[in-house]
Write a structure and sequence with these properties.
Helix content is 74%, strand content 3%. It is mainly alpha-helical and 315 residues long. The chain has one domain. The strands form two sheets. It has a two-stranded antiparallel ribbon with strand order 1-4. The protein is globular, with a radius of gyration of 19 Å. 42% of the residues are buried. The mean pLDDT is 94. Its main location: membrane. It is found in: Cell membrane.
């Protein structure tokens, strides 16, 4: 039954993604984070301590709401519990949504560079207003690589952990809440430096194992897709620490090596220039087709992960 719940949720994500104008659960988590952040800024002077309260309070609130929802559903029918479980697991996966949004960057670039910049701005935290076409393509590749872990493999990892203890949805949304906290406040620049510290560190901790396992899965995917998987391994070993985050460089290294391009470098976040190490070697100039290759790596990596997790659940 657990394997069936997993496969159903993955198929729903692949088929439906996030329908337009649909109130995704993450939207409500985001509103909760914003509400609690505003209250903390008003009432707590020590924003470093307030950041821990923000993270812990949001996590406990989300998990408690899900627990109550499933508890009430159990009173109605076990079938309702399964339906809610499938729905919440489906909404916790982001492959189709990411694919759709990244392809908008490709489409935008076919129109003009301003449209490409605007499309990318919805996906990244950096300033995109002055990016060249090559930088836009690299940005789309980077966010797809990173979100192969954050939006696909890590959620599957925590679903698997959750099935072991009978709480797949709770574990998944614990992770998704931390990931959303990090995306909203986990920046090492003002005004988030202090209040976002706890969220950023929690996200680093929860992504530590998935980033490493997921990168190996991504290497397998590059081999299956006949990309430069040997260089992928070489760059992964060499550049896996070339990022302030302990995790982000892992998937980016795999893709940079597989495509023989260089990622990373200097970017602007919230009007502040941030120096970043480079990842990979610039043997080839990035082009739009490489975004498609990265999307294929993401989907195949998810397929491999789902296959392994399904076998684990059946056995």
């Amino acid at each position: 039954m657990n394997a069936l719940l997993l496969l159903s949720s993955v198929l729903l994500d692949w088929i439906l993604g996030d329908p337009p104008n649909w109130k995704h659960p993450i939207i409500y988590i985001g509103k909760l984070i914003q509400y609690q952040e505003n209250n903390i800024r008003k009432h707590i002077k020590n924003l470093f301590a307030g950041g821990f309260l923000l993270a812990i309070g949001t996590i406990l609130s989300v998990v408690a709401i899900i627990q109550c929802l499933l508890f009430l559903a159990q009173w109605v029918s076990p079938v309702l519990v399964q339906i809610i479980t499938i729905y919440l697991m489906y909404t916790g996966l982001a492959a189709k949504c990411l694919s759709v949004e990244v392809k908008k960057v490709i489409k935008g670039l076919t129109q003009d560079i301003q449209t490409g910049r605007k499309s990318l701005s919805y996906l990244v935290g950096r300033d995109t207003s002055q990016l060249t076409e090559e930088e836009i393509i690299k940005g789309a590749i980077e966010t797809t690589a990173e979100n192969t872990i954050d939006g696909v493999i890590a959620p599957l990892f925590y679903i698997g952990i959750g099935f072991l203890i009978g709480m797949p949805v709770q574990c998944l949304y614990l992770y998704k809440t931390v990931n959303t906290l990090d995306s909203m406040v986990g920046y090492n620049v003002e005004p988030y430096r202090e209040i976002g510290y706890a969220s950023a560190k929690l996200d680093d901790i929860l992504n530590y194992i998935p980033a490493r396992i997921g990168s190996l899965v991504m290497v397998i995917a590059t081999y299956c897709l006949k990309l430069d998987w040997k260089n992928s391994i070489r760059i992964l070993i060499r550049d896996r620490r070339n990022h302030k985050s302990p995790n982000c460089a892992y998937p980016e290294s795999v893709i940079a090596g597989a495509l023989n391009i260089q990622l990373g470098g200097t970017h602007t976040y919230f009007d502040k220039v941030v120096e970043k190490p480079t990842i990979g070697d610039q043997k080839t100039n990035p082009n739009a087709s490489m975004i498609h290759h990265t999307i294929k790596v993401m989907y195949l990596s998810e397929g491999i992960s789902v296959m392994l997790l399904t076998l684990f659940l059946i056995i």
